[in-house]
């Protein structure tokens, strides 16, 4: 019988300190996410230095809790997988330094994981039978891309944003509406009560890439214009109109690519939790007979289970192990076509 492979995942790229134990790349034995949202809320966004300090404070407890919840002993861990980019450098360094020490002290091999690839793997822990190839629509606070997932470790960006990320636009629009950080989920709630009756420009450009800066400015100007004229703003309608402008074209584009390449479509990233995005992607895929996969809501945002999953698949492919010289790489990307 094949031996089970146990991976401990560690994630600290932004404002979540997370650790998780995953068996054979798909079975989540534990997933602990310590969110700092309540701390950063008062500043209207993530303050990098405060994030780093809180990771330092929390990481040991979070890892211990993940091992305890999984009922796994340190000696049972086959690999540690740690996020080394993309993200905030100081925040990443906490996870990387912890993982290196943990592996050195306990003689465990270390695997470095790209956070963006981790997000895509959230689909493997949700859907036990999902296998590549597929097309993935990735939308988070830091990235927006349509990715050609050729294998468990081979990713190529087909389309991407040329300026802001999708989640960033959600957060900025939320701030304009006076909603607290992170605003994406609040915009989602308002939008569910609203009508898309304001005509904002789509984010899809002629070449199929995306630009969010025009939409963001369009929304801000619209709000200020009403305020200057003393006209009351219907926040629900604005939220829905913005959501449709931010997501419809991107979903259409991803569906078209999946259709043309006869592939399945997966969604990933924090914005993958958006209710309109999930409904519209499902509806469009059903319409064209494309199989669609959505990660469970708890695996859309940052977590360490997705990192452990990617770590497992990298280990299976015999990828080079990380050494004690592993550094954080804040600008890490995926390869582009
Ligand atoms: O993937 P993620 O947790 O972190 C990054 O890697 O960036 O994504 C966070 C982003 C934030 O911008 C947040 O506002 C957005 O995802 N988000 C949402 C929703 N839930 C989270 N955006 C729209 N609708 C949601 N339901
Ligand atoms: Zn993320």
Question: For the CA atoms, what is the radius of gyration?
Answer: 20 Å
- Describe the largest sheet: 6 strands, mixed
User: What ligands can be seen in this structure?
Assistant: 5'-O-[(R)-(carboxyoxy)(hydroxy)phosphoryl]adenosine, zinc ion
Q: Mean pLDDT, rounded to whole units?
A: 96
- Number of alpha- plus pi-helical segments: 10
Principal-axes shape call = globular
| Coarse structural class | alpha/beta
List unreliable stretches of 5+ residues: none
Q: Tell me what portion of residues adopts beta-strand conformation.
A: 15-25%
Question: Which strand order do you get reading across the main beta sheet?
Answer: 10-9-6-7-8-11
- Quick one: how many beta strands? 11
- How far the N terminus sits from the C terminus, by CA atoms, comes to 40 Å
* Helical fraction: 40-55%
The arrangement of helices and strands along the chain is EEEHHEHEHEEEHHHHEHEHE
Structure write-up:
43% of the residues lie in helices and 18% in strands. With 337 residues, it is of the alpha/beta class. A 6-stranded mixed sheet has the order 10-9-6-7-8-11, with helices on both faces. Helix 5 (166-176) runs antiparallel to helix 8 (235-260), helix 6 crosses helix 8 and helix 8 runs parallel beside helix 9 (275-288). The chain is globular. The site of zinc ion (ZN) has 4 residues, from helix 4.
């Amino acid at each position: 019988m094949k031996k089970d492979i146990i991976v401990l995942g560690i994630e600290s790229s932004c404002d979540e300190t997370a650790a998780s134990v995953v068996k054979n790349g798909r079975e989540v034995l534990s997933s602990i996410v310590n969110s700092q949202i309540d701390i950063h809320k008062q500043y209207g966004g993530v303050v990098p230095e405060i994030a780093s300090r809180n990771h330092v404070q929390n990481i040991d407890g979070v890892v211990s809790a993940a091992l305890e919840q999984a009922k796994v002993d340190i000696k049972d861990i086959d690999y540690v997988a740690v996020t080394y980019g993309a993200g905030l450098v100081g925040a990443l360094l906490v996870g990387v330094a912890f993982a290196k020490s943990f592996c050195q002290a306990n003689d465990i091999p270390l695997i470095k994981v790209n956070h963006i690839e981790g997000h895509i793997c959230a689909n493997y822990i949700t859907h036990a039978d999902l296998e590549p190839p597929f097309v993935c629509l990735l939308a988070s606070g830091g990235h927006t891309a349509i990715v050609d997932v050729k294998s468990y470790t081979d990713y190529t960006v087909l389309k991407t944003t040329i300026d802001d990320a999708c989640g960033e636009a959600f957060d900025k629009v939320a701030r304009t509406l006076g909603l607290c950080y992170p605003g994406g989920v609040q915009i989602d709630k308002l939008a569910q009560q609203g009508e898309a009756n304001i005509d904002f420009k789509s984010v899809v450009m002629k070449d199929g890439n995306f630009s969010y800066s025009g939409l963001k400015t369009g929304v801000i100007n619209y709000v200020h214009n009403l305020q200057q004229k003393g006209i009351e703003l219907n926040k629900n309608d604005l939220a829905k109109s913005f959501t449709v402008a931010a997501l419809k074209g991107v979903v259409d584009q991803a569906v078209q690519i999946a259709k043309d390449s006869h592939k399945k479509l997966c969604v990933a990233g924090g914005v993958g939790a958006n209710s309109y995005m999930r409904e519209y992607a499902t509806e469009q895929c059903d319409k064209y007979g494309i199989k669609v996969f959505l990660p469970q809501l708890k695996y859309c945002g940052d977590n360490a289970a997705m990192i452990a999953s990617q770590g497992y698949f990298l280990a299976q492919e015999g990828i080079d192990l990380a050494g004690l010289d592993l550094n954080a790489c804040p600008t890490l990307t995926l390869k582009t076509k």
